[in-house]
Design brief:
Distance between the termini: 48 Å
Structural class: alpha/beta
Number of strands: 11
């Protein structure tokens, strides 16, 4: 059998079969380390600089190992790249066909039960956002597609943007999924995707899905890990923070409004009428709006100790209203959907109680306020113990890789945060000569990122570079809002007919 250096070398199958492939000593070194961890089923933390070719460096030994592997990435974009391009290319070059599954989160799959609820109660559909067509028209488009789709992946329906307000009404979340009790369970797209993943040799997920699976143990859909011999986490620098989100507690306006609307839809579908409960659901919606109104306009993050007293009072009223709704729902003799709403109200009440009674030294508690919504969050300071339980649960190679994991040569900060202080750690330099091939430009006049005009100021400072390079530039933003503002400003400044591509 060929060694990784033969495959990744100048005369190997990748050089012969993959367009643009160039052998790199750093890539071969990383592949050797990954192959060793896979063989010994041991944890590995490996930092490899930009340009190393990390993806091929872990795909080649993963394919050669013959093990059942989960590959977790930081973004859906990288998921798609691995599934549609990189894995098929490496597999074909090696002559090793493998069964690959791409598994996304629930929000990426059509829920047939919720689609039926939306059709039965169109008056409860979310209002379309600015620039979107009427929800009823879009729903008809989704219904026509639902008859044809096999996978139910919402990205297939390109006529309806992924960010459209209607998608949450026809996709499921952990909270509103009925699991095995769902009348549409036999045709469930999420369950079908999970079943396909369990039968695959390699499964491609993202960190949010993997950590949700670890933290929540979603009932009725099985765990991802049983039978897995290796978990490779690319862009692993994101893992500790993402894990903290899933091991924390969240209560949001989206959850409350979703519960209220879903409950109303389930009651209407079941022909159940209860005036007290209907009034309670309307009160919940009003309280959500009142809590948002207690904060200043504009988006902001507010420490729990600085939350206005009126917002705290409204949160207490919200909890009391939820408690009354839960009592009514629990007493109703309704179908599965209604019973599930009773369980959801119980989970929401549990979150309310946990957020109210948390000790300050356990973690950070704050509220994120957006234009029309809010999210109350608690994130524990330490998630290492929880992660360590999964890493040490059985014989499995956990491989964490990224371009930024060490502080200098020291990995102890990262390995402590993931609960793997004894893991082997390796640092591989980038093949790029940054001193000779790059410059860094730090304008002194840029405003604070919290400034509403920050995006415009940043692009304004970059404009001379864009003009000098003839537009050959990549501008990266942390939000769609900032990206849109920068684009609008550039169009205004340079005109509709840009002077460069």
């Amino acid at each position: 059998m060929l060694a990784v250096e033969d495959i990744l070398g100048p005369d190997g199958p990748l050089a012969r079969n993959v367009a643009g492939f160039a052998p790199r000593a750093e890539q071969i070194e990383m592949a050797r380390c990954v192959a060793d961890a896979l063989r010994k089923l041991e944890p590995l933390v490996i930092e490899a600089g930009t340009g190393t070719g990390k993806t091929f460096a872990y795909l080649v030994p993963a394919l050669l190992s013959g093990r059942h592997v989960i590959i977790s990435t930081g973004t859906r974009t990288l998921q798609d790249q691995l599934f549609h391009r990189d894995l098929p290319a490496v597999s074909a070059a090696l002559g090793r066909p493998v069964k690959i599954a791409l598994l996304k989160g629930r929000a990426n799959y059509l829920c047939r039960h919720r689609l039926k609820l939306a059709r039965a109660a169109p008056d409860l559909l979310p209002l379309p956002l600015k620039g979107e067509g009427p929800s009823a028209n879009v729903l008809e488009r989704i219904e026509n597609w639902a008859v044809r789709t096999g996978a139910g992946d919402v990205s297939e329906l390109t006529q309806v943007p992924e960010g459209h307000a209607i998608w949450p009404a026809v996709t499921s979340t952990r909270e509103n999924c009925l699991g095995t009790e769902c009348p549409e369970f036999a045709a469930c797209h999420v369950f079908a995707a999970r079943r396909e993943a369990q039968a695959a040799d390699m499964v491609i997920v993202n960190h949010h899905l993997l950590l949700a699976d670890l933290a929540l143990k979603e009932s009725g859909f099985g765990d991802l890990l049983p039978g897995t011999e290796a978990v490779i986490l690319d862009e692993a620098h994101q893992v500790p923070e993402t894990a903290a989100q899933f091991f924390g507690v969240t209560l949001s306006s989206r959850q409350i409004l979703g519960f209220a609307r879903d409950t109303a839809a389930e009651l209407k579908s079941a022909g159940v009428s209860d005036t007290t409960l209907a009034d309670g659901l309307r009160t919940l919606e009003a309280l959500v709006m009142e809590i948002r109104a207690a904060f200043p306009r504009g988006a902001s993050r507010i420490d729990w100790r600085s939350v206005p007293a009126i917002a705290v009072e409204r949160l207490a009223e919200l909890e009391a209203t939820l408690l009354r709704a839960h009592g009514v729902l629990r007493g109703l003799d309704g179908p599965t959907g209604v019973s599930h709403c009773a369980r959801r109200s119980e989970e929401l009440l549990r979150s309310c109680a946990e957020l109210r009674d948390l000790e300050e030294e356990a973690g950070a508690r704050w509220i994120d306020v957006a234009t029309q919504s809010w999210t109350l969050r608690f994130i524990p300071f330490e998630v290492a113990d929880r992660l360590q339980q999964f890493i040490t649960a059985g014989p499995c190679a956990w491989i964490f890789t990224s371009a930024t994991l060490a502080v200098g040569e020291d990995f102890s900060h990262f390995t402590a945060r993931i609960g793997a202080p004894q893991a082997r750690s390796v640092r591989i330099e980038s093949p790029f000569n940054y001193r000779r091939q790059a410059l860094i430009y730090l304008p002194e006049s840029i405003s604070d990122p919290a400034d509403p005009d920050h995006a415009r100021h940043t692009v304004e400072a970059a404009l001379p570079l864009l003009e000098t390079s003839g537009g050959r530039a990549f501008l990266l933003f942390t939000s769609h809002r900032a990206l849109g503002e920068a684009s609008e400003w550039l169009q205004h400044k340079l005109g509709q007919q840009l002077p460069f591509p």
